[in-house]
Amino acid sequence: MLVTVLCVLIFLIVAYPLYFVIIASVSDQSLVSTGQVTLYPKHISFFGYQEIFQDARIWTGYKNTIIYTLLGTAVNLLFTLPAAYVLSRKEFRARRFLMFAFVVTLFFNGGLIPTYLLMKQLHLTNSMWVFIVPFSVNVYNLIIARSFFEHSIPKELHEAASMDGCSHFTFFVKIALPLSKAVVSVIALYYLVAHWNDFFTGLIYIQSNSLQPLQIVLRDILLSNQVFSSGAGSGGAAGGYAQQYADQVKYAVIIVSTLPILIVYPFIQKYFEKGVMIGSVKG
Fold first, then answer.
1. Using CB atoms within 10 A of its CB, is residue 65 exposed (0-12), middle (13-18) or buried (19+)?
2. Spatial contact of 80 and 187, defined as CB atoms under 8 Å apart
3. Burial class (CB in 10 A: 0-12, 13-18, 19+), 252
4. By three-state DSSP, how is residue 276 classified?
5. How far apart are CA 96 and CA 238, in angstroms?
6. Residue 198 burial (CB < 10 Å; 0-12/13-18/19+)?
7. Is residue 134 within 8 Å of 119, Cβ to Cβ?
8. Which residues touch 30 (CB under 8 Å, ≥6 apart)?
9. Taking CA atoms, which of 18, 28, 165, 212 is between 20 and 30 Å from 195?
10. Lowest model confidence (mean pLDDT) among 102-106, 195-199, 250-254
């Protein structure tokens, strides 16, 4: 009973901030700022959402982000999973050296300016491929997948398959992957969220408005409303109304940017709960 009460309490503590943002996005901001909105919305207004969705750029941003997220996640899995499987095979002599080379990149990198110059020389700047190609493998996810293949797939299974003439490629595609739904789902979710929230890549490497992801579009909308609120005057009714509208847009931006990921998560939750601890003990 105590454990149940504790779990419910923790859930409420975690869930309430999100719930508050939802009700604050449709409430009168003067009531929100004075603490009168706590459990349910008051003086409901959808101005924040109207301000966002009447901007034509939002649909372009949604389209771009969905493309970058789905294509990027597919490319990430295409590179990460085979690499993890190869590095998990003890008969592969170069695996320790290659794993060391991967791990080094967790601690050292070239920095922003050399990276930008490299992307420019590769003609990836101002291109959709800059969201996908340069960041095909996340080393942390690679380590998780490698640990799973090394410790969770019995070596006897590969020995039995190899006796029947099964190659490594066939074993990986037809046996290892079907047994790896948990780790594949976890890594896919990590990549999915990373691509969806990717803000920095669009800010640095993209100049064309037609290629900007959703996060950059929402940032521009948010900044324009903040300018509107600050330019409405230092005081008086006009300034107060402008600030209220800017605050409502701010809450609506949070919901618009996070809602799609929150919808996706329940569909892979059962795999996530099983796979999130993979590699946490064994290295």
1. buried
2. yes
3. buried
4. coil
5. 65
6. buried
7. yes
8. 240, 244
9. 18
10. 250-254
What's the mean pLDDT in 243-254? 75
Residue 32: per-residue pLDDT: 78
Report which of 156, 223, 144, 127 is spatially closest to residue 186, judged by C-alpha positions: 144
Locate tokens 């590095």: which residue? 87
Q: What whole-number distance in Å separates Cα of residue 231 and Cα of residue 224?
A: 10
Q: Mention every residue, 6+ apart, whose C-beta is less than 8 A from residue 254.
A: 21, 25
Burial of 97 (0-12, 13-18, 19+ CB in 10 A): exposed
Q: In angstroms, rounded to a whole number, what is the distance separating the alpha carbons of residues 172 and 179?
A: 10
Q: Cβ distance 214 to 257 under 8 Å?
A: yes
Helix (H) or strand (E) holding 275: helix 269-275
Give the count of alpha carbons within 13 A of 53, CB side only.
9
Q: Is 142 left (phi over 0), alpha (psi -120 to 50) or beta?
A: alpha
Name the band, by pLDDT with cuts 50, 70 and 90, for residue 231: low
Tell me: the pLDDT tens digits for 86-135?
Answer: 998 888 888 889 989 888 988 888 888 888 998 999 888 888 999 998 88
Structure tokens at 276: 């999130």
pLDDT digits (tens, 9 = 90+) for 41-98: 888 878 778 877 887 788 888 889 999 999 999 999 999 999 999 998 888 888 889 9
Q: Considering the chain, what is the average pLDDT of its residues?
A: 81
